[in-house]
Design goal:
Blueprint: E1 7-16, H1 28-33, H2 47-62, E2 83-90, E3 99-106, E4 115-120, H3 131-138, E5 144-148, E6 157-158, E7 163-165, E8 171-173, E9 191-192, H4 194-197, H5 206-224, E10 237-243, H6 245-256, E11 264-268, H7 281-295, H8 316-327, H9 336-349, H10 354-365, H11 368-380, E12 393-398, E13 401-403, H12 407-416, E14 426-429, H13 440-451, H14 455-465, E15 478-483, H15 495-504, E16 510-514, H16 537-553, H17 576-579
Parallel strand pairs: 4-5, 4-10, 10-11, 11-15, 15-16
Antiparallel strand pairs: 1-2, 2-3, 3-5, 6-9, 7-8, 12-13, 12-14
Helix pairs in contact: 2-12, 5-6, 7-8, 7-9, 7-10, 7-11, 7-13, 8-9, 11-13, 13-14
């Protein structure tokens, strides 16, 4: 087996067969669609229960498994894939905290077409956070799949009982086992989150995380099939794919791949920031948090899902935001309607399209912009749980207030949580007041960290500069796919400037801007929302199919390829013809 020196402790190897497979932990498609798998003893779930629920939660967080969505009928499948898992903690030089790597090796690994898919979790999810993309496409094809959580994940550390999460997902006290995340501060209060509080600015290392996962994958294939070893990039095709933050991670990896490790890259809706071309997530997220509540009151959004309350009226807090913007001199108009128009035009002038604003109504109504800003600001400033910027902190939620989590709540975090609270019994507190616009103080503070020039603002801006991708090699097949209606990572700020930059530098990526697709396939099962949109996953699968045909069947890689012309789903079930594939 080839040597790797970046993983910590022992590699944990488990077999998954007989109703406990790699792709769905034995649940199958129907089981994945159902309610979250239960724990027999909620305070002390078994390792099998934790893994099953972690896989199910990751599927539900990424794919549209609703009755109208077409998964398993129009596109995609969830067959039984028996095999083995190899997992460990890994380390980036100079990092404070480890990241997870996991390799799934199917029993029916295709020895004739040696293939390793490498991926990174979407969002801030845990280790299975890309299984609905990379696992669902690669495992049934006979590829091994290597995952990294890229320094994020749901290994929350709770100061209330000084506990974190071990490699197998169980909770343990500091000092009794190696933990996924163990804050440097020996004492504190509330809950510490690896992405926000590791002190590492992990986003700057996402590309290295992906390349490490690829190395780990090759080494574990050596262990799985010693008679076929060594597995190397020269005899094993390594395909990198990911979506959202995972998409940004594989693009970062492409620019760092000096050893020709990767054979091809497929990135879906990537969080990528190309300086002098696009905009950084922190910039437009904090702008959205501040301005979108007022702008979305424009009459053009009256029929937009999430843009009005349950009675069809404007959200009261959004009306208050217009008044707040006026009071702070950001809007000059004195009447509500004029303020709304000015806020809307402000966002139009900074690059927001009507399509992006309309789907961003969901993120605005769910308060995602402020949540993203608080977590990312803490990561960029390398703050601990007790020193988050703008007065924010995380704590267990008890009767709506900060409290102490019970054992059952703690036990579920690793399997269920998304990696950035609130959710699963953990809340984001602070940064608010008792006014009609309670979120304003923290929101203004987060925005100032981007627009200001004090010590903290300059430190945050420096951290964001470290996220810039490097140029990939000229002959690397690359495909970027993005929903035209993405309101979380708008194409105008992310994929389009990145692809334009590649072309300027003599690269030839394929790019599909998919009509009617937006950021969250999982949201398509929400009433009224899926009517207007298409899932992005089937286009990702199609791109991976085309890359496979190029790498293994000699099919020519196209210089360009027209984006399929899809049609919105409407109120009925998804039909194959709607995808235009």
């Amino acid at each position: 087996m080839q040597g790797i020196d970046f993983f910590l402790g022992q590699v944990r190897i488990t077999a998954h067969r007989d109703h406990d497979d790699l792709l769905s932990a034995g649940l199958g498609l129907e089981g994945l669609k159902g309610v979250l798998a239960s724990f027999a003893d909620p305070a002390h779930p078994t390792l099998q229960e934790l893994r099953r629920r972690a896989i199910q939660a990751s599927w539900k967080g990424i794919a549209d498994l609703g009755p109208l969505g077409g998964y398993g009928a129009v596109y995609g499948a969830v067959p039984d894939v028996p095999g083995r898992e190899y997992q460990a903690f890994a380390n980036i030089p100079d990092a404070h905290s480890p990241h997870r790597v996991l390799v799934q090796v199917p029993d029916q690994f295709d020895q004739a077409h040696r293939c390793l898919v490498v991926t990174a979790s979407s969002g801030s999810r845990g280790i299975y956070g890309a299984i609905a993309l990379a696992g669902a496409w690669g495992l049934p094809r006979g590829c091994a799949v290597a995952y990294t959580d890229k320094g994020t994940g749901s290994g929350y550390f709770d100061y209330a009982d000084n506990s974190g999460v071990t490699l197998d997902g169980e909770r343990a006290k500091r000092g009794t086992a190696m933990l996924e995340f163990e804050p440097d501060a020996a004492s504190g209060k509330g809950i510490a989150i690896k992405h926000a509080h590791s002190g590492d600015n992990p986003e700057a290392d996402w590309g290295r995380h992906v390349l490490q996962a690829a190395q780990f994958g090759l080494a574990m294939l050596d262990r799985a099939f010693p008679e076929q070893a060594p597995f190397t990039p020269q005899n094993t095709r390594i395909i990198a794919t990911g979506l959202s933050n995972g998409g940004g991670a594989v693009l970062q990896a492409a620019g760092l791949d000096e050893q020709y490790t990767l054979a091809g890259v497929v990135a879906l809706e990537p969080n990528v920031h190309t300086p002098q071309h696009g905009r950084a997530l922190y910039d437009y997220a904090t702008e959205a948090a501040l301005w979108l509540p007022c702008a979305l009151m424009d009459a053009s959004f009256d029929a937009t899902p999430f843009a009005r309350d349950a009675h069809g009226a404007p959200h009261a807090a959004w009306t208050a935001r217009c008044a707040s913007l006026h009071a702070h001199g950001l809007l000059k108009a004195s009447t509500l309607q004029a303020q709304v128009s000015q806020a809307y035009e402000h966002l139009r002038n900074t690059g927001w399209t009507d399509q992006a604003m309309a789907t961003a109504a969901s993120s605005t109504a769910l308060d995602l912009w402020r949540v993203i800003g608080a977590a990312y600001a803490s990561a960029y400033l390398r703050r601990g749980a007790d020193s988050m910027p703008c007065g924010y902190h995380y704590a267990a939620v008890v009767n709506g207030k900060p409290g102490v989590a019970d054992e059952a709540t703690r036990a579920s975090w690793w399997a269920d949580a998304s990696g950035i609270p609130p959710g699963n019994g953990v809340g984001l507190f602070g940064g608010t007041d008792d006014s009609a616009d309670p979120a304003l103080p923290g929101t203004l503070g987060l925005r100032h960290l981007w627009t200001g020039n004090d010590v903290d603002a300059r430190a945050l801006q420096t951290s964001v500069q470290a996220l810039a991708p490097r140029l990939p090699r000229r002959d690397l097949p690359m495909w970027v796919l993005h929903g035209a209606d993405d309101g979380l990572l708008p194409t105008a700020f992310t994929s389009e400037p990145y692809v334009a930059w590649l072309h300027e530098q003599g690269r030839s990526p394929l790019y599909w801007k998919v009509s009617h697709a937006q950021h969250f396939d999982a949201f398509l099962s929400l009433p009224g929302f899926g009517d207007k949109h298409l899932p992005l996953l089937p286009y990702g699968y199609a791109a991976l199919d085309r890359l496979w045909a190029h790498l293994f069947q000699g099919q020519q890689w196209p210089a360009e390829l027209a984006t399929p012309a899809g049609t919105a789903r409407g109120a009925g079930p998804l039909q194959a013809s709607m995808l235009g594939l």
